Amino acid sequence: RKQEQINIASGGREASIQKSEGERQAAINQAQGQAAAILAVAEANSQAIQKIAAAIQSNGGMEAVNLKVAEQYVNAFGNLAKQGTTLIVPGNLADMSSMIASALTIVNKGKGATDVR
Fold it and tell me: Do 65 and 56 meet the contact criterion of CB atoms below 8 Å apart?
């Protein structure tokens, strides 16, 4: 009877240790998986940035950037009108090109250019 109780206690102890080790390994595996995913995303972003940089340096690349910035600016401005009952407009709506030019100035300063078309 006493040996049976010892065996049950020993088995319970061993089962508890095995469960704990399994949970520990699962946590390690999950952390390693998350770390690998973060590294994969960072590597993909790095490659995308390098490709964009190369495209900007190619013939017509800066013009493509200017077009994209202007397009996004117009889309963002259009979305403002959809967000609620209040409409936000620039002080001089007729001078949309100067607002786009202002946005492009930031892009061009990043490249070292001083003129904005």
Answer: yes
